[in-house]
Amino acid sequence: MNGLLCYCRAGFEPDLAAELGDRAAEAGLHGHARTARGDGYVLFVGDEALSTHLPWRTLVFARQSLRLLAELRGLDPRDRIAPILAALDAARPVTAPVYGTVWVEHPDSDAGKPLSGLARSFGNALRPALRKRGLLAVADDPQATRLHVCFVAGDHAFLAEADPAASAPWPLGVPRLKLHHDAPSRSALKLEEAVLSLLDGGQRRDGLRPGMTAADLGAAPGGWTWVLARHGLVVTAIDNGPLRQHVLDTGRVEHLRADGFRWQPPRPLDWMVCDMVEQPARVARRMGDWLREGWCRQTIFNLKLPMKKRWLETQRSLEAFAEAATVPLAVRARQLYHDREEITVHARRTGDD
Ligand SMILES: C[S@@+](CC[C@H](N)C(=O)[O-])C[C@H]1O[C@@H](n2cnc3c(N)ncnc32)[C@H](O)[C@@H]1O
């Protein structure tokens, strides 16, 4: 069975299916989505090359993207291991290297969450069986291909695999972040996740250094400003609403009551972040203005999406952003775990490198 198994936020399956369909067609590949609203995953069945041409990093609505190997239905609860070993034997060339790790998962959905206990205990039983069969490394090897078993019901599972370097490094595609007790709002988690999942290690190290400067458009009550200040950045926070006092007390934050669509910095900044609730295309165009004018080198911003046709709106907004920016950019957009009806975009001017 060829294709992709992708996880997503429950309710966003049609958006992910539309995205995969368009991306496959652009790459000249055949594929069709099998999904139902609320499942928390999309199966995209088609050409073998799909996983190479549609890697996780380039997808907006996929929390994870895996190369599909097999679908197992009617699993006997007394022995789910034998059919999995048989399916792996059938799906893999004899010369295939052993897996480095195995993750037993379930979709992040109403039907999937009750399967977490099964996933945990089954993983403990499966590991020794895979090792005995010579399919799994004796000690975990996080660089080698990872095997995924995804239960969608007690008797129904998918087998898939992923290159750790080209897939989400978190089980279920969900980074586990805890809200800090000092954080002024839950939104702080969105920016923390964006930094973790949209920037690579080098960009985090070199791109967010103490003493750098930033603007936060639509900053109140101060969650994103607080995250930037904790990284040591000096932040101008723009909002007509109030910021929490302890954010101002960091000594790194200036609060200006101004319109985030009109304000511009007196001198170029390293960063601009924006969480204003507005029409996505309007936000996207303004973000493009900032990059074109060189008012910031990098930006992380949210695009609030309407209820319907969210993939179409995503495409339109990202096009409007690129058109307004005109300068060469590296752009990554994703629906983060902490995003609800929205996506988060990181963009960096590449001409300055
Ligand atoms: C979702 S909240 C931001 C939450 C914030 N990122 C945090 O982490 O606490 C959106 C904010 O955008 C502000 N906002 C909306 N339109 C604005 C505008 N034109 N100029 C400045 N702020 C605006 C609102 O006042 C509101 O405080």
UniProtKB/TrEMBL annotation:
Keyword terms: Cytoplasm, Methyltransferase, rRNA processing, S-adenosyl-L-methionine, Transferase
Active site: K304
Residues annotated as domain RlmM ferredoxin-like: 1-66
Compartments, record wording: Cytoplasm
Positions bound to S-adenosyl-L-methionine: S187, A220, P221, G222, G223, D239, D259, D275
Domain Ribosomal RNA methyltransferase FtsJ: 185-277
GO annotation terms (biological process): methylation
One Pfam entry name: RlmM_FDX
Family that this chain belongs to: Belongs to the class I-like SAM-binding methyltransferase superfamily. RNA methyltransferase RlmE family. RlmM subfamily.
Listed name of the protein: Ribosomal RNA large subunit methyltransferase M
